[in-house]
């Protein structure tokens, strides 16, 4: 699988952000989708994985979240800049390992990715975040070349 880091502008409702075009199964939306939580917080969805998971910019804070719905969000990054940098550095590290490698190789790749993400945006590597979930998937062999 060829992985390239390329940014695209996604706009809508007077807001515009530059985000990665793709990252594994995630794809940039054609436009920002404005959503409002039950608490009145405004989010702009800029990425989607199928019809199930979105990645969102919280309008007031600039924090990036991910989840299947606004009721199920987890922290991803402190800002869109941190998010883009994490995506770029993780893509630069790909391939993580070959198909059928020993689990130890998968765990070593995951440790590298955790260091990469923590080096860009320390809270993004904490347990229960978008990136920690991704790193866990890498550690069990879900992302061979």
Query: Total number of β-strand segments?
Result: 8
* Average of pLDDT: 95
**What oligomeric state do these chains adopt?**
single chain
User: Rg, please?
Assistant: 15 Å
Query: Biggest sheet, strands in spatial order?
Result: 3-4-5-6-7-8
How would you sum up the global shape? globular
Q: What percentage of residues falls in helices of 4 or more residues?
A: 25-40%
Count of the separate structural domains: 2
Structural class: alpha+beta
Show unreliable segments.
none
Q: Major sheet: size, sense and barrel closure?
A: 6 strands, antiparallel
H-E string: EEEEEEEEHHH
Strand percentage lies at 25-35%
- Please count the helical segments: 3
Question: Distance between termini?
Answer: 6 Å
Layout of helices and strands:
Elements: E1 7-12, E2 15-20, E3 22-23, E4 26-36, E5 42-49, E6 53-58, E7 64-67, E8 74-77, H1 80-93, H2 103-120, H3 130-139
Provide structural commentary.
Strands 3-4-5-6-7-8 form a six-stranded antiparallel sheet, covered by helices on one side. The protein has a two-stranded antiparallel sheet with strand order 1-2. α1 (80-93) packs antiparallel against α2 and α2 packs antiparallel against α3. It is 29% helix and 32% strand. The chain contains three helices and eight strands, in the order ββββββββααα. It is an alpha+beta fold and 145 residues long. It has two domains: 7-79, no CATH class; 81-139, no CATH class. A hairpin with a 5-residue loop joins β4 and β5.
